[in-house]
Structures
1.
Amino acid sequence: MKSTVREKYADIARQSRETNAASCCGVGTPGTYTIMSESYSSLKGYNPDADLSLGCGLPTEHAHIAEGDTVLDLGSGAGNDCFVARAATGPEGKVIGVDFTPEMIRRARLNAEKLGFNNVEFRQGDIEELPLSDNSVDVVVSNCVLNLVPDKGRVFSEIHRVLRPGGHFSISDIVLVGELPDALRQSAELYAGCVSGAIQQADYLDLIQQAGLENIQIQKSKPILVPDHILLEHLSEAGLRDFLASGTGIFSITVYAEKPGGDDRSARHEKRKVNLIELQTAIACCEPGSSCC
């Protein structure tokens, strides 16, 4: 499955945004399957060149990112959420994107260079084993990525490890209520397209709790309606009727959770403000002609 995901998303990195938007998470049969993605155009920091229309939500909109934060984006693609996060964290903050696919990393780095951002960094790596130190980030975001990962529990454990005490995440992802037919679950194409890799919503939330994260909240939920012509590539007409009658729901959710350890995040921000004021005062003091220079 990891090889399938890497191959599919390498292809996506090479194709146009319009092609991605006309298919299931950028893969599968072209059509009118744009219902997963949401518009970033109103968000500060949005850059169309970095938007491959691969998401299923707007996690950065709900992530409560503050100036000076260090933000981590899991499955950063061409850099879309990283650049929106960078607008929120400001020049004093830092944004790190981690992606599994070398082609995506190259495309994201090119976008960052074009924009002249020196506080946005892209690292190639597996989000089941993040290339970051313990307690090193304030906020984690991710958009329609964990459903592609076989061991989702391991990812949440890694999120817990890299978050600072009091840090939090906001993640948009695909979950299920009810069981998918075997033919859909076994489709590698739909796995790479974010559907068959989804798990039950209750199990998803339970994995977050098992990882030691708390204050779990669903910030947003919307149904995903997969077009019949895509389902019919994997199901017979009778199978499609049974599936539609089964009550199974496919949902995009944006979920929030925190790492325990007290709200030292606010204290860090106050310290940053004090340090910045001291630095500005020192610069002003040492200007030519000042009394203390």
2.
Amino acid sequence: MPSFVTILSATAPVFLVMGLGCAMQRRGWLGEELEIGTMRLVLNMFLPCLILTVIPGNPALEKISSAVWTVGTGFFLVLIGFAVALTVGWMVRLKKGDGLRTFTICAGIQNYGYLPIPIIAELFSDDSGPMGLVFVHGIGVEIAMWSVGLLILTRKSGWRSILNGPFVAVFAALIINYTGLYNYIPAVITTAMKMLGQCAIPVSIFMIGATMGGFLKRDVFSDAWRVSFSSVVVRMVLLSAIILILAKFLPMPADLKTLLVIQAAMPSAVFPIMLARMYGGSPSVAIQVVLATAIVSVATSPLLISFGLRWVNGGY
């Protein structure tokens, strides 16, 4: 079981790299064209290569039931997140047209990929199980986001948008895994994919920081207290507790329990900001949610992961 110091050592560099990305963007060293182009490269090449190297042959995905559990938890936990966020939004008197729908989407979805990946890679470098499950778990999250999430925001679903690079790569990787085709892939190809996949984690984290740095240039902090405080309560308290309880008591695979502990400690996802901008939501509310939960998570993530790993695995 990783100690608190080990967990802190794994999480601190992630936020440090994000901070550097934010600083570079604030200094004007990263233009919007470079930012968009780099994220496209991550989405369409680096992440798919990483997925195709960590899923095939992964012992945590030896049984199809493990994949079903992982996708299912990704989907239903986001639905629970939406329900909790919507309820809290009503309680603090957010209204439609005043950011209620955007708050629901942003506070309801944790950062399920870019932030957990480097933390898991550092904490479980000798265990490939949790890393492979990150991407399979993401399928469920993506389905919930582009169906129910977009329905909440616009009353329309966006199923076609699910078919992005990582989503297709996960399905391809699962097919390769359960058919055993990975045993026949030439070593030169797997080596090349590993090299490209290793770029995914640091570049992704750096660019998340850059994206947040770009948002900081805007006046998004006026009347932000209500949204910021409520989002921290939803994401970092209520939903963290729910995820840990489910991980503790549901009869799911051990590697999935470990993954959910990490997910429970994550701040809100960054991508819903883009959803708010593209589909007529309230980008300022989305930015407030992301920034507030990200700032708080710097201090709370190591504590929550340390406690969660012990409690879920019977250490307390």
3.
Amino acid sequence: MRDCLFILLVMFTTVGCHNKQSLQSHIEEYQERMANVLDVANQNSLKTSLPPYPSIKDLKQNLPVTTIKLFEFYTLKHCELYSLVAERNTSLGNLQLPSTRYIYERHLIDALNQCLIDTLEPKLQEKLTEWQQVKTEQLPLVWADLMQLSSETKYGFSTNVGLVEGNERDGLSQIKETLSYLLQLNQNEQVNSAALEQHLQTLMNNPLPAKLWLSQRVLADNLQHSTKWLLQNTQSLQCSGNASNKKMEYLTNVFQQFFIEKIQPIASQINHYQYQLGPIFENMTANLYLSPSFKDYIKQFHQQGFENYQAEMQQHIQFWQSLFKRCNIKPGQR
């Protein structure tokens, strides 16, 4: 049978998700209340942040510029390809924002395909076929630059602004849709520039991956610190006696009111977000075209970071289970 503490945790996972206070505030108040009850100095506050996003030199794909000679350029006047190449100053793809570059390359491939249909001259057909093959092979790498180098994706994966709130404002469904859209871009027959920019803006406006990973890190660091602090400051705490009974009663109330009712519901949502976004992160880390440094960056949070957060959460709960068992306390019962 599951013990009463675990049942209590489950009961409270749906409570308190709409509290306006932040996760950081809940943690700080939880720590402060414990210090007041034990009449000892409060724990030193921890400043937690995500590590820096990989550098551009580690992320940028080595894409050679495909050039076209002037006389070849003039042979394309019968095709839409002519105007597209003219946009890039006779270079088939030049320096652009990652999203603009991706859309341009998609249009360029479509124009190459149509120009092949409209061209009868064999030598030009041969050249068009060569360009088409090169551009088609390069498209996944252009997509990788879009995923890794866009300011919106960098912000969405690495900003240190904001934590998970545990409610609809976290925007889980929108972020799932956006990340799935970005991952499947190369499989879409038609790509709309406005839709792409809208999805990127969604990630900029609501960087849930970064919020999720930072929240896990904040909880892991603070709970590890709090568990050690509690072990040190409850060793001499007796289960009996008027003063001790009062302290145990107050500690139990602090645990229930601040950890169970405020921190635990947000932690429950963190777990939910992790499981919902997990398959998307797995697809990213398995992708052949994304750079190793980008995949390692995702992996350290999706795998190691989540495991560390779970371990520290479990260690903290086990401390309280042990203390309650030693003093024969059943949380939630009067």
4.
Amino acid sequence: MAPRPASILHADLDAFYASVEQLLDPRLRGRPVAVGGGVVLAASYEAKAFGVHGGMSGRRAKELCPELVFVGGHFREYQRLGDRAMAVLHDMTPLVERISIDEAFADVTGSVHLLGPPPHIADTVRRRVRDELGLAISVGVATTKHLAKVASQVAKPDGLVVVEAGTEQAFLEPLPVRLLWGVGPVTEAKLAAAGITTIGQLGASAPEALRLLLGHAAGAKLGALAVNADPRRIETTRRASSVGAQSALGRRRATDEVLRSTLGYLADRVATRLRAKERAGRTVTVRVRFRDMRSVTRSRTLPAPVSATLTLTEVAVDLARMALADHPGERDITLLAVSVSHLDDEAVLQLELPLALEGEQLRPGTPTGAGRWALDRSVDRVRQRFGRGAVGYAAVALSDDRRVPEEFRELAEAERVADEDHLAFGG
């Protein structure tokens, strides 16, 4: 059987948020720009050259780059321009899988007889985005989704990299492991401690050693990606396998007040998104990151799928307390995250018999659960009409997490969830 041709494209707009700001205000072009204020939400390439990056405090960013210009962000423009860039891809092929506001995969196998070979199609995409939108987009072309994404990262900024069939391993082996999908700073540090710094070294490592080092699932997946074993195909429609949100805290003492306000905020976001999709989930997972960047997770599977804000908040706080109790030496935390998985279509609410049931608040059909169900939907209707800030739970409304604009949180969370979903084969 002939090898699959290099016909998968991964297109990724360069430094998208900051580039849009430079497009909207020509005075910012060529200057170091950060979207945000107290926290850097995104940085231009000129700012990144000084070490400025997303998630950094504004004060630290200014220390690194005194000439840094902060802008507030034009979120409607981000959505509009991201949609227009995706429309260019759709002009090339109907097989487009958008994974965030500014990046997507495309399978152009069926388009070559009309539009030319894949590298030509990729170059057309780049030229049209530049000419029609005024933005730079980097494109990777390869035989698999994973490899196309790696190629687009190598192509940045404003470049095109094609990895032809048969050259995959020669391309991958010298690259740093951080370019693999799913390798963040913590995983990269673990691999480096084991003497693994390149993708070639990772691919040559014994599978059992990787599972011991990284865990069974992550070790197996990253070992497969290192040798370009990626069976996934383009999915033009896909339902998320989980819904989640996270909040970087800087460095905060892990008090009960911090847990309740932050997790309440995150639970409100997650539960609202679940209800908007008419979904509910059985498994709640909380991630706590300590000041040394180590993370721990705790999960609980509930007796019935839930989408209630207060219920999700209570479960999340209990899980975070468990994680902290298991690490009594850790008093400061830098991040909290909540996700809900094992999703089902939300069933019509059915009241349960008035029995004394254990965990009544966790069951939607009990008096407590039904009350929360009705309250949440009233809140949703008010927000739909008057905006998210019109009504909410007090602990959430007064939370410090509101320093980050709601629109940016929506965009950032969508990107993070897409990355997590796609790391798993078949997602």
